[in-house]
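This part of the workshop introduces the protein records we will be handling. An example says more than a description, so a record of this kind follows.
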Amino acid sequence: MSSYLARLIVDQDAESVLNSGATRENVDIDGFLAVRASAPYVDPKNHCVLAVDVADGQALWVQWTSLSGGYPGLSHEVACQRAEEAGRLMLASLRRLSR
């Protein structure tokens, strides 16, 4: 079993949202700067956090976690792919809403 968590952060950019001791990597999500990481208290192979800069001082937070750890072929990269897929869908929705 896995879960997603998403929220809009209205007072911090992506870099600030994930300003912790966790390992971080900058990535591009459909033209938006994003930061991928794992929380320091969670096994990185079961978990990924993605923070996407969506506006000045605002970020979209998307988290994917394998709750059971039994996901076939699970790795941090796979967890981040799941978070990025959800992030892309949410960005597409935000674009439609802003028209």
